Amino acid sequence: MLLSLAWFALGTLLVLPFYLLLWSRRARLTRKLPGPTPLPFLGSALELGRGPVEMMTNTVRLWRQYGSNIYKMWLGPELFVFVSNPNHLEAFMGCHINLKKSVLYKFLFPWLGEGLLTSSGKKWKRHRKIITPAFHFKILEQFVETFCHNSEILLRKLEAHGNGPAFNIYDYITLYALDVICETTFGVSVHAQENHQSQYVAAVKGMARVIMERTQYPWLFFDVTFRWSELRRKQEQYLKILHSTTNEVIQARKHYRLLNPDSSFSVDDTGVKHKVAFLDALLTAQNDGEKLTDEEIREEVDTFMFEGHDTISSAITFCLRLLGLHPNVQDRVYNELVGVFGNSKRKSTYRDLQDMKYLECVIKESLRLFPSVPFYGRRLEQDMKIDELVIPSGTNVGFMAYCMHRNPDIYPHPEKFDPDRFLPEKVQGRHPYAFLAFSAGPRNCIGQKFAMLQMKATISDILRRFKVITPSNVVIELSWEVVIRAPKGVFVKIEERS
Ligand code: HEM
């Protein structure tokens, strides 16, 4: 430990003058921006409070306090500028420079390495190019069967609660989403729903909390100090579970490909001949000499396993809660489903999901109020001019999707759940960057079409079978744990439809 500290002290002494220059430039150029007054060393970290619930509440409080457009905040040595004006967001997100993620994403590195979410530069570009065809709509079409097969299992599990008291639906949806992402994108069944104490899901929650706690304590920004903390010990435990799960998935798929060499997984010029799992695209690229290492493949599997289930479970659960609070909206969705299926109990097809137009408005309105990734950001590699202001390179820019979605100038009566806001004629007059649940620009969510299809498939299957009732309309407590969560669960009742 002493040796590490000595290196840290020496390194600090050498780079300090250089950093002081950069800090003073950042401070000078952004001095006109409003924001809390920083304390020495800590910056304004204390403003965020303790734990993920306070982090969520205080982030929103600061936005209300310092303006709905742009404000600044120092967290330890790092400068953050938070933006929530659609014009500013478009300037940052829409351009092809400054694609690097903010400094806080480095806390994800031990888990996700440099997967698509966290990487930048040439590596990100190359991987995005390899992975994009695996999310072509022709491929997504084939996933509908997997959504349906897994939602049948989900409905069987939910049956036990039919006409009973309120229960926490969050865990059921999470396990269902985990089964779906593993079967569709990795071609491997993990049967999470059948074995409902998933160590993996618990480790994802634990790891997300470690990451957010690091954000709140600037002295843990540095690896050298983090290494000796209690949080690091917890992190190691979670990583063991997370990485062993993804390694098992990769090995299972490799084994399957070895036994089934005929199940070739290629996309031809006219579309798709065979079912292509995302993992196959990576393994094929590796075999074709694209120089994807085993480590890089694991990083992507970790990234997709996390992004592909945690975001969707949060989105479906919040949407069900809102439908349970608004029976008139739920009836309208149900009538749409009767229009699509009549009295038939048949499974959904891709075409059916396309026809669920009102349900799509409902899901978007729910994501407006509860975007699965409420805040995300970049670190500028080049200065950016916003209106008359220069935001200097080295600044972390926070994109405040959750807050912008609650700006009354964009969405009148923003707390009101009103899916009609997303009818085509209403969207037309709105700024293209006024809805950012899936981000936008070159680093937008690669899984957004997949997500929308899966959410429609799941919610429609649940509503065709059950009426959802949310017994309590007290404001729900939210936490920011990379994704947005309801830490006390989401309780609903379900009644069998006659
Ligand atoms: C309701 C569901 C979802 C929501 C709300 C959502 C939202 C987002 C957002 C806001 C980002 C940008 C994050 C950032 O800039 O740091 C993002 C990126 C990403 N999402 Fe999603 N996501 C969802 C589902 C999915 C699914 C199902 C997958 C995979 C199958 C996925 C994979 C990714 C990946 C890999 C990125 C990084 C893309 C890049 O930087 O090139 N997401 N998502």
From TrEMBL:
Can the keyword Transferase be found in this entry's annotation?
Answer: no
Q: Which InterPro entries does its entry note?
A: Cyt_P450, Cyt_P450_CS, Cyt_P450_E_grp-I, Cyt_P450_sf, Cytochrome_P450_Monoox
One cellular component (GO) term of this entry: endoplasmic reticulum membrane
The places in or outside the cell where this protein is found are: Endoplasmic reticulum membrane; Microsome membrane
- Which cofactors are required for activity? heme
Q: Which residues cross the membrane?
A: 6-23
What Pfam families is this protein classified in? Answer: p450 (PF00067)
Whether ATP-binding counts among this entry's keywords is: no
At which positions is heme bound? C445
Q: How does it sit in the membrane?
A: Peripheral membrane protein
Keyword entries, A-Z: Endoplasmic reticulum, Heme, Iron, Membrane, Metal-binding, Microsome, Monooxygenase, Oxidoreductase, Transmembrane, Transmembrane helix
Q: Which GO terms describe its molecular function?
A: heme binding; iron ion binding; monooxygenase activity; oxidoreductase activity, acting on paired donors, with incorporation or reduction of molecular oxygen
Similarity annotation: Belongs to the cytochrome P450 family.
The family database entries (PANTHER family) matched by this protein are listed as: CYTOCHROME P450 4AE1-RELATED, CYTOCHROME P450 FAMILY 4
Q: What is this protein called?
A: Cytochrome P450
Q: Which organism is it from?
A: Gryllus longicercus
